[in-house]
Design goal:
The protein has 2 domains: about 100 residues, no CATH class; about 280 residues, Orthogonal Bundle (ABC transporter involved in vitamin B12 uptake, BtuC), CATH 1.10.3470. It has about 425 residues and is mainly alpha-helical. Helices cover about 70% and strands about 5% of the residues. A hairpin with a 2-residue loop joins strand 1 and strand 2.
């Protein structure tokens, strides 16, 4: 006797989800493009009398008519603003449009700068090289923040971890060999991470307050130890030297790209590896899936057998060690010695890059590069032109940080369990 099998027709309901921007967001972005266009036309355009701007790219020089270039850029930016206001750009096109608008505005700005100073030549490659160099500690600090906060632990102590790493790199590099200072920096950053992890995870201390306390501890402790023996006997304890430049065969000979990316010291190359490694590990591996799980819903992760607390400890230590490596760049990576508060608030800028980058390695890296460019631009303008007041140039990197985080990010959402202590039931 055979049983009749009754089948039912399945109906699949397709729904189109509207992912377009809200009118308010579209108009705000249009206003930003319009402001850049008006600055190019009104301020820069009227102030440029004429002449030719020379943009130097390694061995090649691009000459542009300054006034005409500024006006054309202003008109193009206003056109982008009009399109953004009326139609808007798609989700994939928006980053590209923003990047193109930024590059166009910087070309207009460089044309204006070349007519204000005594030197009409703008060394673009040199500026970008300085930007990458200044961005390296910011990128490493931002990666540390992403590692910790994706795990559910707020890391406000990036500044202190970098400062401890800078001090340890200088000391170890002085008493041993320069490159050994890298291990000292990793160890010092990890030690600060132990303090952060133990008090935040084990003793459930408020993580923001704890981060501030650790920053103060690092500043006070490194300052005391610097005065105690590094300053009094700097020849023995504060002369680590600087890591040598490593030129990658063949790649360093590529015009423009070679000098930018492949003529650097080992910390820069380690940064490249870490950017790729953290991004792939976080979004393409089982460890990354578990890390994101304990940062979003630790109770559910615990239910399926993930050791939430152990993984948080491990990730905080790894992230803090990366921040310590970023601190090493300030001493053995560039200056060749330690000074009090040598990090100069870069840890806080790295924390802003984490937020601006929406807690992703690639986004945080892009934000760190933007902030590094702002710092390099400030240094360049202070030499090439006096048309902009020096006090405004000094605050330019911090203004860029505030504007980026407060005005351009929009609504961002941190990992759901970020800063929330987890107590295993």
């Amino acid at each position: 006797m055979s049983a009749a099998v009754q089948t039912e027709d399945l109906t699949v309901d397709h729904r189109v989800v509207d992912t377009s921007l809200s009118p308010r967001t579209r108009l705000l972005r249009a206003a930003a493009y319009a402001v850049l266009g008006l600055i190019s036309l009104v301020w820069l355009g009227l102030d440029v009398d004429g002449g030719t701007a020379h943009l130097v790219f390694d061995t090649h020089t691009v000459s542009l008519p300054a006034k005409a270039t500024v006006i054309v850029v202003g008109v193009v930016l206003l056109g982008i603003a009009a399109w953004q206001a009326v139609r808007g750009f798609g989700k994939r096109a928006t980053p590209w449009v923003a990047g193109i608008a930024f590059v166009l505005f910087m070309v207009a700005f460089f044309c204006w700068v070349s007519t204000q100073g005594n030197n009409p030549d703008i060394d673009v490659v040199g500026l970008l090289q300085n930007s990458i160099g200044l961005s390296v500690p910011l990128i490493l600090g931002a990666l540390a923040g992403v590692m910790c906060e994706r795990s559910g632990v707020i890391n406000v102590a990036i500044e202190g971890q970098m400062l401890a790493g800078a001090w340890a790199a200088a000391l170890v590099g002085s008493v041993a060999v320069t490159w050994v200072g890298l291990f000292g920096a990793l160890a010092a950053g990890a030690f600060m991470g132990v303090l952060l992890a133990v008090f935040a995870i084990r003793y459930l201390v408020n993580q923001v307050v704890l981060g501030v306390v650790l920053n103060v501890l690092a500043a006070g402790l490194t300052g005391f130890l610097f005065d105690a023996f590094m300053q009094t006997d700097s020849e023995k304890f504060n002369t680590p030297g600087v890591l040598g430049e490593i030129d990658i065969p063949l790649l360093h000979s590529i015009p423009v790209i070679g000098p930018l990316f492949f003529e650097a010291n080992i910390v820069v190359y380690l940064t490249y590896i870490l950017i790729f490694g953290v991004d792939v590990a976080l979004f393409r591996t089982r460890w990354g899936l578990r890390t994101r799980a304990i940062g979003e819903h630790p109770k559910a992760a615990d239910t399926v057998g993930i050791k939430v607390l152990a993984l948080r400890y491990r990730n905080v230590l790894i992230g803090s060690a990366i921040a310590g490596l970023g601190g090493a760049y300030f001493t053995i990576g560039s200056v060749g010695g330690f000074a009090k508060n040598i990090t100069s608030g870069n840890g806080f800028i790295a924390l802003a890059a984490v937020i601006f980058g929406r807690w992703s390695p690639r986004g945080a890296t892009a934000a760190a590069l933007l902030f590094g460019f702002a710092i390099a631009l400030q240094n360049n303008l202070s030499i090439n032109t006096h048309a902009i007041p020096s006090y405004f140039l000094a605050m330019l990197p911090y203004v860029a940080t505030i504007v980026a985080v407060a005005g351009l990010v929009g609504k961002v959402r941190a990992p759901a369990a970020d800063g929330e202590p987890y107590v295993k039931q």
